[in-house]
Amino acid sequence: MNVVSPVTDDLLRQYDVSGPRYTSYPTADRFVEAFTTDDYAQALSLRRSGAAALALPLSLYVHIPFCESLCYYCACNKIITKHHEKAAEYLHYLAREVDLHTALIGTGQAISQLHLGGGSPTFLSDDELRSLVGMLKRNFTFVAGGEYSIEIDPRTIDEKRLDTLAELGFNRLSFGVQDFDLAVQKAVHRVQPAEQVFSLVAAARARGFESINVDLIYGLPKQSPESFDRTLAQVVALKPDRIALYGYAHLPERFKPQRRINAVELPSGGAKISMLSHSLAAFLDVGYVYVGMDHFALPDDALAVAKRQGRLHRNFQGYSTRPDCDLIALGVSSIGRIGATYSQNAKTLDEYYDALNHGNFPIVRGLALTRDDLVRRAVIMALMCQGSLVFESIDLAYLIEFRSYFAKEMEAMQELADQGLVTLDEHGIQVSAQGWFFVRAVAMVFDRYLQTDRTRARFSKII
User: What percent of the chain has pLDDT above 90?
Assistant: First the structure.
């Protein structure tokens, strides 16, 4: 594959550093156990009594933690089991968690976005998926034109199951592919023939699903720039509506499954840079829009349209076309946002079940945002989503003088401007076309927590 990257390898190497993904600000590693279930209940009560309940619909995230087999690269919260009877018990507790919410916010709240993640949501049987979606629809009102998505393990689904997903109202699918190379698939314990994925994607298109996403990972064991070029060519031929391209972070001390990966088989840093460079060029060359960070979309996909129209947002699932709204997160380890608070559920089933058995929300930590957090969140999200910031808009919204409030940060922004990553004038900040590929580095300038804590090993690489 003869490709030219839109950014230089020197810049890619310079910004081959760790940093937050900014699905929230402050980031989840800043959550504290001092945030309690009472704090969460108060936030829900304030939503019901406040204007937010009348203005924007809610988003729902449901975490299904079960997988039949272990993927060695995985850093998600999951439970490996072939005992499918565990799903029925889990759905029972999800219903209990929903009941606790509706007791405070009432039934019938409008939902414009639903995402089932995991784990593998398709671990659930068709009847269990019907039960789950039916329970949610009895308690919430799903609005027409919303985004209703589910993550799919291609090994757990066939065309009949696609019919079930369409029947239940899902209109967006995300296929976990990672790499089509058989040697790489064996090295990470996830073998799935390319023909199977191509067949499922064709069947999904025939059934009218609005958007199909494919997840890829570069930096896996036994990958090389040459082998990944072959995967890129197959993905280009597949032509999904969206592509999520992630760099593998090998952290076996934090994620036990990764200890099964032979570190000797991992590609070098230089090889990873080449894979990323080739990926950027390959996707842009055939017309994909670089939405931001590690996401690409075809020009007519809703995500690309939202970026073009300045309507892009971010939440705990990544980039979104939905307005910045409250997110109710259900299930073990899930993270939500209500008003000016973030919260996370218990990370183990035992803790999760125990809290619900006692009639409590399974919240174990969270954060109530300060005024400074809110100001910085607005700045970071403007840069991450729109790639631009107007000083006056922040001045008026938060009653500050931007250049004085962020005097130190503006000095750092000048360095990025000197590199051509942003342009500065008296009105604001504009991320350049080249700078958009390093937008996380731009946003990090305004992260107060990173200014006092330079330990970034817990974060993924920013490119």
Answer: 78
